[in-house]
Amino acid sequence: MKKVYFLQTCDTCRKILKSLNLEGFEKQEIKTNPLTVNQLDEMYRLTQSYEALFNKRAKLYREMDLKNQTLTETDYRQYILKEYTFLKRPVFIIDNTIFIGNSKKVIDQLRSVITP
Fold first, then answer.
1. Residues 45, 34: contact at Cβ < 8 Å?
2. Cβ neighbourhood burial of 14 (10 Å; 0-12, 13-18, 19+)
3. What local confidence, expressed as pLDDT, does residue 66 receive?
4. pLDDT in tens, the chain (116 residues)
5. What is the pLDDT of residue 82?
6. How buried is residue 2: exposed, middle or buried, by Cβ count under 10 Å (0-12/13-18/19+)?
7. 2 pairs with which residues across the strands?
8. How does strand 91-94 pair with strand 2-6?
9. Is the preceding omega at residue 34 within 30 degrees of 0, hence cis?
10. How many other CB atoms are there within 10 angstroms of residue 53's CB atom?
11. How many Å apart are CA 45 and CA 48, to the nearest integer?
12. How many C-beta atoms lie closer than 10 Å to residue 56's C-beta?
């Protein structure tokens, strides 16, 4: 399976997607086509952490003052399912490997896998 979850309105996501050869990838824009419970649980299966999938840079994270709360894995899961902006993005899944976020390290690792 080759899949990417992204946000079309995110300049960083668009830039990353444009820079990669995504032939054969299924693309899911998470604002217009939200994550399902099964999709999020599949990501969890690959990471063993909802927190790793959680975007702590989201505007809502600050607005809701979540930084000053003690969140559990269940909380992270519920927030991601409730509001697309809480998913750290983009998320690439290639077979049983997951790449989360837009850090240079993650994108370099991703490039090494999809560029022959």
1. no
2. middle
3. 95
4. 999 999 999 999 999 999 999 999 999 999 999 999 999 999 999 999 999 999 999 999 999 999 999 999 999 999 999 999 999 999 999 999 999 999 999 999 999 998 75
5. 96
6. middle
7. 94
8. antiparallel
9. no
10. 24
11. 5
12. 13
- Threshold 0.90, pTM exceeds: yes
Q: How far apart are CA 116 and CA 112, in angstroms?
A: 7
Could you please report the per-residue DSSP string of 76-114? HHHHHHH-GGGB-S-EEEETTEEEES--HHHHHHHHHHH
What is the predicted pLDDT for the residue at 116?
58
Provide the 3-class DSSP secondary structure of residue 22.
coil
Q: Which helix (H) or strand (E) holds 45?
A: helix 37-47
Q: CA separation (Å) from 103 to 9, 86, 90, 108?
A: 18, 16, 10, 9
Task: Name residues whose C-beta falls within 8 Å of residue 88's C-beta, 6 or more positions apart in sequence.
Answer: 52, 53, 54, 55, 100, 101
